[in-house]
């Protein structure tokens, strides 16, 4: 049985390790920190819990290919997926600002701006009547100012012109080494880490002339 050594125990490393085992390889994950999980970790310091974990997870919709992949690696076992009415809420002191879909765009921008100024004035009374809303950033703001494709908040969203940004994971001059991780190809994030970990094992299986098993 051939061994695959995986450096760093984040989502990409776990994905590669799991699919390596599923395809008949021995896998060893090496992690320098005492806690594994990469960006999905938290730790205690001076009486506070520092949470570096995600606050939303893409690909949880039942029946989708990405959801099947999350289920295959066991990431959602025993996890209840909650779909809130608003897709984002920002809390500051006693004020919570909710962000909703499918509302009038300008009306929603104005509402958010007023809510943020109100929260700031409540927290800092000396700022009352001194604040002005210049703009409220939305996907259209990203598209207007940054030319981001369809307002993607990660500017290297895949396009026909951007194919060269997809890294194969191979490093020229280094045999038997592949890269996996969330920034290896657009749009980034944990789903990309999950997928690139799997893809690395697919490439190894192809080189070894083995049928890849999902």
From TrEMBL:
Gene3D superfamilies: FAD/NAD(P)-binding domain. InterPro entries: FAD/NAD-bd_sf. Pfam families: NAD_binding_8. PANTHER family: PHYTOENE DESATURASE. This is NAD(P)-binding protein. It comes from Halonatronomonas betaini.
């Amino acid at each position: 049985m051939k061994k695959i050594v995986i450096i760093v125990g984040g989502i990409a490393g776990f994905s590669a390790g799991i699919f390596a085992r599923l395809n008949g390889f021995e896998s060893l994950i090496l992690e320098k920190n005492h806690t594994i999980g990469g960006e999905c970790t938290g730790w205690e310091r001076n009486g506070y819990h520092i949470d570096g974990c995600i606050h939303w997870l893409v690909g949880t919709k039942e029946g989708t290919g990405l959801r099947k992949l999350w289920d295959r690696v066991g990431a959602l076992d025993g996890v209840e997926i909650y779909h809130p009415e608003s897709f984002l809420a920002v809390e500051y002191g006693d004020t919570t600002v909710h962000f909703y879909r499918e509302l009038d765009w300008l009306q929603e921008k104005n509402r958010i701006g007023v809510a943020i100024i109100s929260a700031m004035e409540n927290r800092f009374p000396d700022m009352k009547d001194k604040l002005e809303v210049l703009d409220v950033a939305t996907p259209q703001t990203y598209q207007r100012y940054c030319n981001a494709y369809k307002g993607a908040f990660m500017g290297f969203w895949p396009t026909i012109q951007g194919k060269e940004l997809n890294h194969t994971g191979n490093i020229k001059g280094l045999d038997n080494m592949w890269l996996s991780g969330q920034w290896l190809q657009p749009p980034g994030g944990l789903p990309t880490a999950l997928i690139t970990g799997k893809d690395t094992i697919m490439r190894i299986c192809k080189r070894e002339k083995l049928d890849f098993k999902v």
